[in-house]
Amino acid sequence: MNTPFRFTTCRAGSEPVLKRDIATHFAGELTPAFMKPQFITWKVRSPGFSPPRTLSTFARVSGTSVGLCKTIIEVVDQARNITKQTLRLHVFPRITNEDGVEAATWQRINAIHAEITRALLQAGVQLETRLPYAIGDLILDVIVGETDAEPLFLGLHEHQASSHIQPGGLPHITLPENVPSRAWLKFEQALAWRGWDQLDLSGQTALDIGCAPGGATYALLQRGMNVLGIDTAEMDPRVLQIAKTQDVRFDHWRTAAGRINLTALPQEVALILCDINLAPPEVLPQIARIQDSVQARRLILTIKLNTPALEDRAHEFIDAIRDWAPAPVFATQLAANRREICVCAG
Ligand SMILES: C[S@@+](CC[C@H](N)C(=O)[O-])C[C@H]1O[C@@H](n2cnc3c(N)ncnc32)[C@H](O)[C@@H]1O
């Protein structure tokens, strides 16, 4: 389907960086058309210009804009016009909270999802629900506004290796009350994005760099991993407690990542996590040095982009990571990320 408009969804507050990122990379070929919080559509300026399928690291979902629909009948009509191919249906809220979508919102979305599914099937549209996703699977995105008065937005995207399989990039994961920090949620969302939540990580070793107070370490230990945490700060006592009760090992080196003795690191490291709250030009060389020594199979890096100048260098940082991290390297802004992006490698 080739309409002259594209759409993107993003985190609340990332609209300005998303606009700058697309303006820089597409040099006027895509210009903002319609904006709502966490949602921007783009006009393709030159008829011959074909934008890539993924428009920006700061867009959790991007694709072709089909248009607004006031009723589910309109959604079905549009879907039938778009393609005769099998579709996957993603229904998700436009407005998302960084600590996860609330249960009441999911209830509303689930009801709309069920209604659209019924109507599409009745109209003879073939819907695929089985896993796994294949590259090129066609996804019908239905974006739901804050109230029933707001029309549904309809978009279409092709599944790519870097795409989220959860509608809107919003996994149904809630931050538990009893974990040491919201890094627990960022880690679990990163696993879900890459499909690594399906891996059995138990008995393997993780390095958690910038581990205090310990939300991510807590999640690693819950998943049965042994963890070496590196941070000058103190850990939450719940981390030490879970290590005891779950028969997993937690060691804490209370030092800065740049000062560790590389020869003392474990031999077999399955996963490196990094969430150091320093700017990437300081952090990345330290992680590269550690990765050079341990050759971890997978990396999950939270890259802090606390200023517009750092945000505008996101691609430079991702390219630098590609030089030393295991392939493939993908970047996204997870729903739980703040002024930061998540880079997964391996
Ligand atoms: C955002 S917090 C990490 C949250 C943590 N991942 C969790 O799961 O709760 C950033 C941490 O980076 C640590 N940090 C800052 N500079 C560091 C360095 N050079 N080496 C190791 N840790 C560092 C800070 O002490 C702080 O605890």
Q: Mind sketching the topology for me?
A:
Elements: E1 5-9, H1 15-26, E2 30-36, E3 39-44, E4 61-69, H2 72-82, E5 88-93, H3 103-122, E6 138-144, E7 152-158, H4 183-194, E8 205-209, H5 215-222, E9 226-230, H6 237-245, E10 250-253, E11 271-274, H7 280-294, E12 298-304, H8 308-311, H9 314-324, E13 329-332, E14 340-345
Parallel strand pairs: 5-6, 8-9, 8-11, 9-10, 11-12
Antiparallel strand pairs: 1-3, 1-4, 2-3, 4-7, 6-7, 12-14, 13-14
Helix pairs in contact: 2-3, 4-5, 5-6, 7-9
The structure holds S-adenosylmethionine.
Residues 180-181, 183, 209-217, 230-233, 256-258, 275-278 line the site of S-adenosylmethionine.
Describe this structure in words.
The chain has helices at 15-26, 72-82, 103-122, 183-194, 215-222, 237-245, 280-294, 308-311, 314-324; strands spanning 5-9, 30-36, 39-44, 61-69, 88-93, 138-144, 152-158, 205-209, 226-230, 250-253, 271-274, 298-304, 329-332, 340-345. It has 346 residues and is of the alpha/beta class. The strands form two sheets. The protein has a seven-stranded mixed β-sheet with strand order 2-3-1-4-7-6-5. Helix 3 links the parallel strand 5 and strand 6. The radius of gyration is 21 Å and the shape is globular. The chain is 29% helix and 24% strand. S-adenosylmethionine binds next to helix 5.
Summarize the structure.
The chain is an alpha/beta fold. The chain contains nine helices and 14 strands. The strands form two sheets. It has a seven-stranded mixed beta sheet with strand order 2-3-1-4-7-6-5. A seven-stranded mixed beta sheet has the order 10-9-8-11-12-14-13, sandwiched between helices.
